[in-house]
Specification:
The protein is of the alpha/beta class. The protein is 38% helix and 21% strand. It has 3 domains: 149 residues, Alpha-D-Glucose-1,6-Bisphosphate, Chain A, domain 3; 218 residues, Alpha-D-Glucose-1,6-Bisphosphate, Chain A, domain 3 (3-Layer(aba) Sandwich), CATH 3.40.120.10; 87 residues, Alpha-D-phosphohexomutase, C-terminal domain (TATA-Binding Protein). The protein has a 6-stranded mixed sheet, with helices on both faces. Strands 16-21-20-19-18-17 form a 6-stranded antiparallel sheet, covered by helices on one side. A hairpin with a 2-residue loop joins strand 17 and strand 18.
C-alpha cells in the first residue's frame, strides 16, 4: 500500500518499512523521472546515497525505475556527501540528482532528496510538479507491482564524485596554511557520508588529523547522526589525547557541521557563521554580501554594517541562500541550524567546507576559537542566541496562531522596536535582543528563537518568549 509522498526542501523523509517502502520509492523516483522528462535532453540523473541501511538496494531500484522511464541513471557506488553530489551535478551537467539520505534524522529514517540541474535543492515549484506526477502515476499506472528489470547485458554508468570535489575544496581552502601552522585536527564523520573527505584532504596536505566514528554503522551509534554538543564526547576525548587545536564534525550526509574549540567548548553554529563571515572578508576581500535566515544571529547584521557589505535576510530554508550563491551576491550564507556555503561553491549546505575553513581560520589567526569570539564581541557587541521547541495542545496552538496575526507592542514589559515578518514573527527590542516564532508545518510545535545581548538576560528573555506562547 502506498501513502502520500510529500517533498519539502530537504526532500521526502520517512521511516524505513513504514512509509519508506520499495513501492513508495518506485513511485517517488517515477515522479522525479516524469519531471526530468520535461527538461531539455539529454535526460541523465545522478543517483547517490549516504551509508544508511539498505541504501545500495534503494539506489539500484531507483536506477532501474529511471532507466525504464527513459532517463539514464549515473550511479555513485560509494556513500557520498550531499554537497559532493551537488557539485557533481554541476560538473557532469546532469539533469539533477536523486540522493537517498535522511541527513541528521535518526537511523530508522531514510529519504529521497532531488537536486535540480544547478545543484541546488529543488524549489517548491519543482517539488509540486514532482508530487503531481507521483499522484498521477499512483492513480493510473503505479510502478509498484513489479520492479522493472534492465535488459540483458545493459550496464549502468557509474561516477566517482570524490576526486573532483576534493580538488574543488583544495582550491577554496588554504590547506598549506593549516599544514604550516602545525595544528592538529580531530574529525568526527558520525559514521556518515563524510568519511574519507575532510580527513583525506588534510592528510594529503600534511596536517596531523585523527578521526573517531570512522567506519560504517547503519545505526549511527544508536542515535541521530547529528554533530551537536551532547554527542561530541568521543571527539573531545580524542582532541585531548592528541592535543588538537580544533575538532570538526559532519552529520549523516555531511551537509551540517559541528565545531569544538581546543578546550572542549562546542561552538554553536551561529558563532561559526559569524566568525567565518568576518574571516572571509578579512582574508579573501570578498565584499559582495552576506546572507542569513531570519532566525540566525543578528551578529551577522552588525558585522555586515561594520564591513559595509549588503545583508540579505531570508526566510528559513537553504534554497533562498543557494539562489544568492548562484547569483554571486554573497561571500557566505548560513543558517543557525548548522548550514553554510561560500562564494564560488555549491548552492547547497556543506558541512565539510565549514569545518575546513574553521581549521584554516585557527591556523592563520593563531588564536583559539574562544579568543576569536571574544574579539568579535569586542568589535560588534555580545550576542547570546538560543532555540527552543514548544509542543502545543490543539487549544494552545489555535490561540497562539491567532496571536501571531497581530503585531505586539510589548512582550513581558519589553517594548517592541521592530516587527519582522520575513518568516514567522520576529520581535526586535530596543537593546537589539529579539524573539522569533515559527510554527512547524508538520507537527504541533512552535520554534522559539531568542537572542539576548547579555548572559544575564538570557533566561529572562527565554521565559518571556515561552510565556507568550503558552499563556
Amino acid at each position: 500500500m502506498t501513502t502520500s509522498i510529500k517533498f519539502g526542501t530537504s526532500g521526502w523523509r520517512a521511516i524505513v518499512a513504514d512509509e519508506f517502502t520499495v513501492a513508495n520509492i518506485r513511485l517517488a523516483v517515477a515522479g522525479i523521472a516524469a519531471y526530468v522528462k520535461t527538461l531539455p535532453a539529454p535526460h541523465r540523473v545522478l543517483v547517490g546515497r549516504d551509508p544508511r541501511f539498505l541504501g545500495e538496494s534503494f539506489v539500484a531500484e531507483a536506477a532501474r525505475v529511471l532507466a525504464s522511464a527513459g532517463v539514464a541513471p549515473i550511479v555513485i557506488p560509494e556513500p557520498a556527501p550531499t554537497p559532493a553530489i551537488a557539485y557533481a551535478v554541476r560538473t557532469l551537467k546532469t539533469e539533477g540528482a536523486i540522493n537517498f539520505t535522511a541527513s541528521h534524522n535518526p537511523p530508522e529514517y531514510n529519504g529521497i532528496k532531488y537536486s535540480t540541474p544547478d545543484g541546488a535543492p529543488a524549489l517548491p515549484e519543482v517539488t509540486k510538479q514532482i508530487e503531481a506526477a507521483i499522484a498521477n502515476i499512483a492513480a493510473h499506472d503505479a510502478p509498484s507491482s513489479a520492479s522493472p528489470k534492465p535488459e540483458p547485458g545493459e550496464a549502468v554508468e557509474t561516477a566517482d564524485v570524490k576526486p573532483a570535489f576534493l580538488k574543488r575544496l583544495a582550491e577554496l581552502v588554504d590547506l598549506q596554511a593549516i599544514a604550516r601552522s602545525g595544528i592538529k585536527v580531530v574529525y568526527d564523520p558520525f559514521w556518515g557520508a563524510g568519511r574519507g573527505y575532510s580527513s583525506d584532504l588534510l592528510r594529503q596536505a600534511g596536517v596531523p588529523v585523527e578521526t573517531v566514528h570512522d567506519f560504517r554503522d547503519v545505526l549511527f551509534g544508536g542515535h541521530a547522526p547529528e554533530p551537536d554538543d551532547h554527542l561530541l564526547a568521543d571527539a573531545r576525548e580524542k582532541m585531548q589525547e592528541i592535543g588538537a587545536s580544533i575538532g570538526i564534525a559532519t552529520d549523516g550526509d555531511a551537509d551540517r557541521f559541528g565545531v569544538v574549540d581546543a578546550d572542549g567548548t562546542f561552538l554553536q553554529p551561529n558563532y561559526v557563521i559569524a566568525l567565518l563571515f568576518d574571516y572571509l572578508v578579512e582574508t579573501r576581500g570578498w565584499r559582495n554580501g552576506v546572507a542569513k535566515s531570519v532566525a540566525t544571529t543578528n551578529m551577522i547584521n552588525a558585522l555586515a554594517e561594520r564591513h559595509k557589505v549588503p545583508l540579505y535576510e531570508t526566510p528559513v530554508g537553504f534554497k533562498y541562500i543557494g539562489e544568492l550563491i548562484l547569483e554571486d551576491k554573497i561571500a557566505i550564507g548560513g543558517e543557525e541550524s548548522a548550514g553554510l556555503t561560500i562564494r564560488g561553491h555549491v548552492p547547497e549546505k556543506d558541512g565539510i567546507i565549514a569545518g575546513l575553513l574553521m581549521a584554516e581560520m585557527v591556523a592563520v589567526r593563531r588564536r583559539s576559537l574562544g579568543a576569536q569570539l571574544r574579539e568579535l564581541f569586542a568589535k560588534v557587541g555580545s550576542y547570546y542566541p538560543v532555540r527552543e521547541n514548544f509542543r502545543l495542545t490543539p487549544e494552545v496552538k489555535a490561540r497562539f496562531t491567532e496571536k501571531l496575526k497581530a503585531d505586539p507592542a510589548a512582550l513581558s514589559g519589553r517594548k517592541v522596536a521592530q516587527v519582522v515578518r520575513t518568516d514567522g514573527l520576529k520581535l526586535i527590542f530596543d537593546d537589539g535582543s529579539w524573539v522569533c516564532y515559527r510554527l512547524s508545518g508538520t507537527e504541533p510545535v512552535v520554534r522559539a528563537y531568542t537572542e539576548a545581548r547579555s548572559e544575564h538576560d538570557m533566561e529572562a528573555l527565554k521565559a518571556a518568549a515561552e510565556k507568550f506562547v503558552l499563556s
